[in-house]
Amino acid sequence: MNVRYISISGNTRSFIQRLQRFAEEENEKNPNDLIIHAKEIDDNTPEEAETEPFFAFVPTYLEGGNGIDNGDQEILTESLRDYIEFENNADHCLGVIGSGNKNFNDQYCLTAKQYAEQFNTPFLADFELRGTNNELATIYQLLCEKWQAAVK
């Protein structure tokens, strides 16, 4: 299973690393379970054409405001947006998973929702900050279901 993500504060990176370990543990119990092939996207990542399906993980960083009638301009994750926009990459994106801080109310996961709308792909799930173990297990199961449905 392929994952493309961006991490500014390290929270998303931490979640992805834990998700990879969780997938490996699940695969040891059941060899048919899927493992995670993750690639972190940053300003220095060369754009390349994706040839297989992937999921995008994106945190929310917005400029002030309340996320609805002001402060809804996404910042800092443009390199992931550019990567998905490259050639036909958006066509391979199976969905977007968002992260953020629930203290930001309506801004929570707003960037991921913007990505989903822009790239016409579903907003699949969310987790707060580094995510809980329950969020990790739930998101892994969801990704497995979506991946298996897409590659059949």
Automatic annotation (TrEMBL):
- Could you give a GO molecular-function term held by this entry? FMN binding
Q: Which Pfam families match?
A: Flavodoxin_NdrI (PF07972)
Q: Matching InterPro entries, A to Z?
A: Flavoprotein-like_sf (IPR029039), RNR_NrdI (IPR004465)
Which SUPFAM superfamilies does the entry mention?
A: Flavoproteins
Q: Which PANTHER family match?
A: PROTEIN NRDI
Protein name in UniProt: Ribonucleotide reductase
Q: Give the originating organism.
A: Tetragenococcus koreensis
